[in-house]
Specification:
Layout lengths: L1 H40 L8 H11 L2 H13 L3 H11 L2 H13 L4
Helix pairs in contact: 1-2, 1-3, 2-5
Length: 108
């Protein structure tokens, strides 16, 4: 029994590492898209808040939204991408994060 359990545990551990690496790669790709989208389609966001706001958006997006945003980095940013970001921005958790980030840089 132990002969089968140990390899399975090792395999599952490797799967978790691969999944984490894939998730991190998608999040980094999505961050780049969000930064570009905020800079080009949301002119009301002050330059000094683009990176902090990007973190709030990524932290409050679902895995599916992260995937779709990251995909826009390959196929191009469009209205759908801006819509996803707008939806994430409207969530109470994101609004709270944005407020905290704004206050931390002295913008209220």
């Amino acid at each position: 029994m132990i002969r089968f359990v140990l390899p399975l545990c090792l395999l599952l551990g490797a799967c978790n590492q691969v999944q984490t690496a894939v998730d991190n790669t998608a999040r980094e790709g999505a961050k780049n898209v969000v930064i570009e989208t905020l800079a080009t389609r949301f002119p009301q966001v002050p330059k000094e808040l683009i990176t902090p706001f990007t973190d709030c958006i990524i932290d409050n997006a679902t895995a599916g939204e992260i995937r779709d945003i990251a995909k826009a980095g390959l196929v191009g940013i469009d209205e759908s991408t801006a819509g996803i970001i707008t939806n994430v921005l409207s969530r109470p958790e994101t609004v709270s994060c944005l407020r905290d980030k704004s206050l931390s840089v002295g913008i209220s």
